[in-house]
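Quick review question:
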């Protein structure tokens, strides 16, 4: 690595700029920014801003210049192709106040790329070897577009390909080592606590003082479908301090939220349930109506779930509720399919039919139609069958949300019920 290209100051913060009309219109989802932000955080570089710009040289130039004023590091992805709408190189040159010049090494690398594939290099690909004067080309081992490094005042600026696998390779191979050499020497580390069973407003009230701006570790909440994440981010001098800060705040959050916290980082509700079942050498089966197999999918998404999950039935029709899990016709006629007695019978029947220690069942109205007097859209009965009996919960999961949201919330609700049952059983 040539240290002549390194900035004098330490790198502490960054702006990530994504370029492409397809990103602006939503035709393509920008995965580069989230990946880069996580990578930079491991180096102690905090992202201040994410920006998305169209293929317009004046807009890209303006955003690059603004980013260089805001942060010590600017990373641009996209706009390095050979076509007329690939304008990042020109925008970099305008922002730096220099002209574009042909880089002989970059041009030879592009030509070699085509030769390895037995093709002549199209003339338009020569534009990819244009680099702002005083800048540096970054070798692309996966495609034709070289990356670009250029200094903008005191800020570093890297332009990387928009193709995700090309960008990741170039960042890992070239950019990351250079950033590590000049990162500010502090670490940013995060921990995510996953929660289920408490509204976000109430959860926020319990953590109010931890959520205040300027705290270290910083604590924030993020509501997802059926789950709320509590995100803890520590700014530390070393790994030991980071771990201490994260551990202390995690302990405080757990003290305030109790059993609402079900997992950490890569844990899912289904994986936590799976570990609890394995610890008890217990088995599980499912009987689903409104969730249509979603619970079973979540369970079997976990590697090794065959150790405890025996199987289940999507008993959507009343006939199947009777035939597969033994729900009595009288219950269906008297109470209707969406009712506590039917949910209870489904869970008990699944345990019996599949020979499992535990079973979960769901029956409800996912919408948008199907509501009846007293039974609105979003009403779901969730049941957990255990060796000691069946627990049933009546859940109203929203009459103004999409069908898939009701189904997801129902799946999380019944798995969380099972999780709490299993945790109590292991105490």
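Suggested answer, residue by residue:
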């Amino acid at each position: 690595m040539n240290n002549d290209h390194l900035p004098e100051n330490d790198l502490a913060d960054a702006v990530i700029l994504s370029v492409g009309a397809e990103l602006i219109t939503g035709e393509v989802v920008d995965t580069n920014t989230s990946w880069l932000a996580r990578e930079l955080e491991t180096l102690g570089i905090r992202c201040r801003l994410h920006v998305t710009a169209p293929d317009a040289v004046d807009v890209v130039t303006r955003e690059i210049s603004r980013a260089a004023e805001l942060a010590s590091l600017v990373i641009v992805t996209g706009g390095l192709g050979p076509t007329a709408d690939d304008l990042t190189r020109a925008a970099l040159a305008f922002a730096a106040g220099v002209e574009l010049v042909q880089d002989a090494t970059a041009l030879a690398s592009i030509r070699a790329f085509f030769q390895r594939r037995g093709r002549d290099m199209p003339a338009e690909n020569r534009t990819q070897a244009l680099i702002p004067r005083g800048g540096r080309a970054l070798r692309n081992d996966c495609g034709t577009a070289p990356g670009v490094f250029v200094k903008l005042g005191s800020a570093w600026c890297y332009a990387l390909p928009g193709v995700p696998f090309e960008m990741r390779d170039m960042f890992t191979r070239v950019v990351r080592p250079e950033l590590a050499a000049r990162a500010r020497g502090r670490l940013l580390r995060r921990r995510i606590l996953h929660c289920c069973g408490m509204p976000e407003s109430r959860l926020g009230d319990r953590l109010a003082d931890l959520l205040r701006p300027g705290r270290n570790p910083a604590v924030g909440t993020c509501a997802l479908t059926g789950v709320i994440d509590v995100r803890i981010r520590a700014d530390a001098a070393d790994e030991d301090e980071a771990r201490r800060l994260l551990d202390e705040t995690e302990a405080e959050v757990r003290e305030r939220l109790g059993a609402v916290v079900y997992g950490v980082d890569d844990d899912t509700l289904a994986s936590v349930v799976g570990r609890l079942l394995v610890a008890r050498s217990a088995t599980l089966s499912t009987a689903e109506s409104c969730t249509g197999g979603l619970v079973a999918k979540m369970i079997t998404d976990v590697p090794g779930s065959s150790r405890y999950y025996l199987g289940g039935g999507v008993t959507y029709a009343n006939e199947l509720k009777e035939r597969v899990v033994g729900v009595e016709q009288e219950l269906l006629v008297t109470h209707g399919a969406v009712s506590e007695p039917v949910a209870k019978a489904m869970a008990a029947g699944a345990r019996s039919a599949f020979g499992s220690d535990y079973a979960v069942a769901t029956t409800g109205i996912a919408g948008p139609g199907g509501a009846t007097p007293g039974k609105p859209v979003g009403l779901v009965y969730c049941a957990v069958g255990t060796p000691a009996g069946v627990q049933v919960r009546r859940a109203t999961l929203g009459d103004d949300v999409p069908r898939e949201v009701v189904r997801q919330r129902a799946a999380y609700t019944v798995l969380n019920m099972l999780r709490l049952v299993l945790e109590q059983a292991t105490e």
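Why it works: The chain has three domains: 3-182, 187-264, 269-426. The chain has 14 helices and 17 strands.
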